[in-house]
Structures are given as structure tokens and as C-alpha cells.
């Protein structure tokens, strides 16, 4: 279980062997050495062991690592970070950051590996160098003020918890993402993918971002509660979540006192949160009653795993903690998977040669015996092109911000960072830095061929973060995206609609396509 939590107990400057960037791993069949939730790998500073440990984790997605660890040159002399140019009196960089956040952060690699940014209220440092990104993710795990703002919805789930409580609960939720469980959730993904493929008609104009968001939400909700009992609740949550997410993303980026004003938006948010709690509370009570009657019952879903989770001393999660974790999974999973799926189809529409390679692959795997079928968990090993497309999409369109709180003075890459500061890592900026990923705007899934990623730094591909807070749903997400891309592409080609430019827009921590309209063409 603790392999999911490499950063547990990390101290500043702890050995690199404890971090776990999964992204340097590649789909080449490898012996399965250790389950993703197996015992924690031995702690060692050997770079070779780093690569092996990461490979073990990612063998869940049938990938192997060719990663090497690059030494950092700039460590010896300690100095102050350069400040980003363009600050204005009082507001500092806020106008530039607030208007086009990740575009502003993308300019900072030219300034230095660690750059000071002036945002009123926060002493902020931005890390642009992938090796230092890796080091910071391993050393620091708390997120500070910004995430506390999301507490109204996320309650006391892992996203918000800090320190020892975070470590305990990460261990307890880990079995929910074990390989055997992912295989069971994959059955839900396969079913919903097939239903979605069957729901489109030739020539339909599809709002692709809405379609994919809906599919992602149904899949996460369907994996939370698989049984009959859960379908009504899943449907209810499906209606509640989109408005809650919209209101939440507004809250986290504005001053806290506004949340307490009796504004219509605040009242609506509070009402929706109460309704979500009531919906999940009812299903938790029903599951508990069923499990009390038959302790051997296994619903095979996330809720079942959470109710059976125990810590080292046999303690279970309370109803309120189970509820909070469910909401954390829903919120963590839905938006990011939906946006990534939408970007996949946008990029396929723009890159006919990539689309052709994908179609050749899915035809070989899913149409071998006649009409196209939906992709299943067991097909993943053969869906090599599909998986490369998923990784490349997550490079170009990952979350744009992860935040770490620096509790005490900390030296990173020779730069002194005062205690109490915020550290920003902008995955989109790292992923689009031409010095790290040449020709970054080009959608090139073959970047993820083993020979081409051999020298890539571990901090160069970080859509799921790293260290103690690395996304616990990473394998779930990769599985879901790969299966849905394969299933939908076996049946449909989505064509761009001429004359409608597709713009990037920031919603919460993600870059979404704004109005992605495409036309469905039967294959
Ligand atoms: C493409 C899909 C996804 C992306 C890009 C993504 C990205 C991330 C990132 C970057 C973090 C770490 C944030 C940080 O370092 O501060 C994170 C955390 C988290 N994710 Fe995901 N995620 C995805 C899917 C999922 C899914 C499917 C689930 C659950 C079903 C999930 C649940 C969570 C939770 C609970 C956390 C908080 C972990 C903690 O703080 O310990 N995510 N995710």
C-alpha cells in the first residue's frame, strides 16, 4: 500500500529513491515484480533502484522504465532567487498571473530554475527545472492555504489532510486502487464506453467536452458504487457535481471572506454540498447494513473498499471520512479525465497521421473477429499507440498548477526559500518547455517511445504530481482514458468543425478546451 506514498515521512533532501515519477515508464511488457499497493520498496539512494521501483509501480499499466537520473549542477552556492520581470507597484505580478496564469508561468524558465514571483498575500517561488521539481515534490507535501479553501467540499479527505493524518488515510485508501480493483472498475469503463459509442448517430455534432465530462463522471461514480443500490445515487451526484465544481473553482481563487457573505452563489454552494452529503450518506448507510448482514459480501467497488479499510491498529474510517474520500475521488477524477479525453479527440482531429495509426491499432485489437467491440482491461497490453497518445495528451494538457507550502527555510537548487513561502510548480509550463520537450506544441506520441525518453528527467512529465501527494487515481485514470479512446475510435472518427477555433481555458487547476464541437463520422 505504501508504494503509492513514496514521500511518506520524507525529510528535506531525502534520497531520490523515495520519489516515484511514474511518467518515465513505457509500454514494453515487463515481469510484474510488485503490486502497486504492495509493501514499500527498500529506501536507497541508488538511481538504479529508483528506476526499478518506479517500474514496479507502473507495470500495472504494462509499462517499463528507461529512466535515468540526471545530476543537478547548481547545488553548491546558496543565493536569492531572481524575481520575475514585469512586477507593478502594489499588485506585483498579480495582473499577469491572474489574467493568463500558465502562460505567465511559462515565461519563467528563461529567468531561472527557481524564480520569485510577487503575488499579494503570498511569498511565492516558481520551480521551472525538472530535477528541482522532482526534488521539491519529494521534500514537501503540504499544500497550505489554497487547498484549505476547498475544505467546504472536500471535507477531511486526503486532498485536504496534512502530515500524519494524510499519511494514515493515504494508506487506508490505497487498496481501493489496487490492480485487482482497477480490473473490476474497468468492467464499468468498458460498459459505459460501449453505451457511449452506441449513443452517437452518424453526422451528429457533439459538444465533445460535455460528452467526455459526462462519460468521466459516470465512470467514476459508477466505480464508486457499482451495485443496483448505487445507481440512483450515482445519477443524483451526476446532476449535483457540475454546478458544485463551477462554484468551487470560483471560491479557491478569491479571498476567503467572500465565502462567508450571504451571496446567492455561496448559499447555492452550501445547499449543493448538503445534498451531496445526504446522497452519499444514504448509500453508505445502506452498504453498512448489507455488510453487517453478510461480512463476506464484496460489491467490488470503491465504497466497499473504503468501508473495509483498516489502519495499522485496526481502526476504520468513520462515515464522515468515507463520505469525504468519495467526494475527493469524484472531484479529483471527473474533471481531469473529462478534459483529457476531450483533448485526445481534438488532437486526433488535428493530426490525421496519428489518428490513422490509432485506427490501425484499434482495428487490429477490437475488430479482429468482426464488428468493433468495446476495449477491455485485458486489451491494454496491446494498445501501445493508444497509451502513447494518452501520455502525449497528458503532456500537452496537464493540470497547470500544483502548490507546496514551505514550512521552514529551505534551499532548492542553491536558492534560499524563506519559511512560510508558497512553491508553485506549473506542469503545463514544464511540459511545454522547448528545452525539455523539443517542439512542444507538436502532438507527437512517439516522444514516449523508450529510445526517445531514455535521457528524460523524472520531473519532466508530471501530470499526476509526485511524492506523497502523487495522484492515487493515476492508474485508474490512465486505464479509463485508454479504454475509452480505443472503444470510441473503433466506432467513430470525430471531425473538427471548420471555422470554430478551439481555445484553451483554465477551470480550477486544469486547462480545458473551450467549446469543442466535432462531427461524428461512423467508421
Ligand atoms: C487525468 C486524470 C487525472 C489527473 C491529471 C490528476 C492529477 C492529479 C494531481 C496533479 C494530483 C496531485 C496534486 C498535488 O500534487 O498537489 C492529484 C491528486 C489527487 N487525485 Fe488525481 N488526477 C487524475 C485522476 C484522478 C482520479 C481518477 C482520481 C480518483 C478516482 C483522483 C483522485 C485524486 C486525489 C484523491 C488526490 C489527492 C491526493 C493527496 O493529496 O494525497 N485523481 N491528481
Protein model, in words:
The structure is a single chain. By secondary structure, this protein is an alpha+beta fold. The protein has a single domain (2-74, 141-522), classed as Orthogonal Bundle (Cytochrome p450). Helices cover 45% and strands 11% of the residues. It is built from 17 helices and 13 strands. The strands form five sheets. A four-stranded mixed sheet has the order 3-4-9-6. A three-stranded antiparallel sheet has the order 5-13-10. A two-stranded antiparallel sheet has the order 1-2. β11 (503-507) and β12 form a beta hairpin. α14 packs across α17 (474-491). The longest helix is centred in the middle third of the chain and has 32 residues, at 319-350. Mean pLDDT is 81; it is low at 1-75. The site of protoporphyrin IX containing FE (HEM) has 24 residues, from α13 and α17.
Quickly give the CATH architecture: Orthogonal Bundle
Mind describing the biggest β-sheet?
4 strands, mixed
Taken together, the total number of domains comes to 1
Question: How many helical stretches?
Answer: 17
Order of helices and strands: EHEHHEEHHHHHEHHHHHHHEEEEHHEEEE
The radius of gyration computed from the alpha-carbon positions, rounded to a whole number of angstroms, is 22 Å
Strand order of the largest sheet: 3-4-9-6
Fill in the CATH topology.
Cytochrome p450
Fraction of helical residues: 40-55%
Globally, the shape reads globular
Bound molecules: protoporphyrin IX containing FE
The rounded distance between the terminal residues' Cα atoms is 43 Å
Oligomeric organization of the protein chains:
single chain
Question: What is the arithmetic mean of pLDDT?
Answer: 81
Keywords: Heme, Iron, Metal-binding, Monooxygenase, Oxidoreductase
Family: Belongs to the cytochrome P450 family.
Protein name: Cytochrome P450
Cofactor: heme
